[in-house]
Amino acid sequence: MKNRSASTILVTGANGQLGSELRLLAPSSDMEFIFTDIGELDLTDTGAVHDFFNSHKIDFCINCAAYTAVDKAEDDKEMAEAINVGTVRNLARACSLHGSTLVHISTDFVFDGKAWVPYTEEDLPNPVSVYGQTKLYGEQAALGENPQTIIIRTSWLYSTFGNNFVKTMLRLGKERNKLSVISDQIGTPTYAADLALAIMHIINELPEKENHEKRGIFHYSDEGVASWYDFAKAIFDIESIEIDLKPIDTADYPTPAKRPHYSVMNKSKIKNTFGLAIPYWRDSLKKCLKLMG
Ligand SMILES: NC(=O)c1ccc[n+]([C@@H]2O[C@H](COP(=O)([O-])OP(=O)(O)OC[C@H]3O[C@@H](n4cnc5c(N)ncnc54)[C@H](OP(=O)(O)O)[C@@H]3O)[C@@H](O)[C@H]2O)c1
To answer: With contact defined as beta carbons under 8 Å apart, do 73 and 134 qualify?
Structure first.
């Protein structure tokens, strides 16, 4: 582990799920943190971003900001693009100019879901939604501006913070006695707290000098595989919620945005490069549910 005690980390989009989990880790780190969300630093404001980097010495920027409303993005392409592409370009450019390392978060939704083994970083993306497309363009913008960027693709995030599938299931579990959940979309639920820890681990493991092996795209989710139905079943089982839960097909639950049928990611690269141990999704789900009370 390097001595990072004099380093400053800027966390953007800090009021979201991942940003909030990073806030919890800050007190136990010896690095300085600056947390901003749209109120303090609107990343669509190119001038404000450059002013910010001019007036602060930023060693690492963890970009948690994004347009994450997958269905809404289908009719709101301009805004999704402005945030998922434009702001990423702004940040990557500022990081490049000021010698800061950008850690940017992307998604399993860059894939079309036609695979039948977990996606590696070498597999060709082919998004099936506006959200996925804008996130892919964001990756390309970041790497185009600054090849030293670290991009972490993750999937199915949930947390005690923000709105997510776990909270929706807990609410529906109280309101209803039967529920249908999609069983033909397969991926991996990821506790945002695990991802936050992984990011801090990676920053600690980065060499002082640029090292191409430790830059570029990495896949991170919790371990294991589930359908949304499996995920819901686990939530209800762990919480001992009695509900008549039925698996349904995507075709029976149409949504504005298409989603990949299979988006499990291979995590060998991130584990081998950074010596990272990743928890099993169900174990992490239990921890999160316990915190939710
Ligand atoms: N959620 C998932 O299931 C999932 C899955 C795979 C990958 N990811 C990726 O993981 C990352 C973190 O996701 P998350 O779930 O933590 O996101 P989130 O909870 O939606 O948080 C995103 C934050 O970014 C802020 N933001 C939006 N526009 C901004 C701007 N112009 N300037 C500054 N901040 C801005 C949002 O503010 P407002 O709320 O005010 O808009 C929000 O606080 C994102 O890159 C996302 O694409 C998420």
So the answer is: yes
C-alpha pair distances (Å), 179 with each of 169, 199, 281, 282: 9, 36, 22, 21
User: Considering only 3-17, 36-50, 96-110, 140-154, which range has the smallest mean pLDDT?
Assistant: 3-17
* pLDDT at residue number 214: 87
Q: Is residue 227 part of a domain?
A: no
CA pair distance 31, 108, nearest whole angstrom: 30
> How many domains does one find in the chain?
1
Structure tokens that stand for 3 in this block: 């001595």
Neighbours of 191 (CB within 10 A): 26
148 C-beta closer than 6 A to ligand 1: no
> Is 183 a member of any domain?
no
Position in ligand 1 atom list of the atom nearest CA 43: 32
pLDDT the model gives residue 293: 87
Binning pLDDT at 50, 70 and 90, where does residue 2 land? low
**Enclosing domain of residue 43:** 8-164+189-222+264-279
CATH number of the domain within which 49 lies: 3.40.50.720
Residue 223, CB-side half-sphere exposure with 13 Å CA sphere: 8
pLDDT, tens only, 55-80 = 999 999 999 999 999 999 999 999 99
Closest protein CA for atom 21 of ligand 1: 16
- Positions marked catalytic: 131
* Residue 67 alpha carbon to ligand 1 centre in Å: 6
Burial zone of 240 (CB within 10 Å; 0-12 exposed, 13-18 middle, 19+ buried): exposed
Tell me the pTM: 0.97
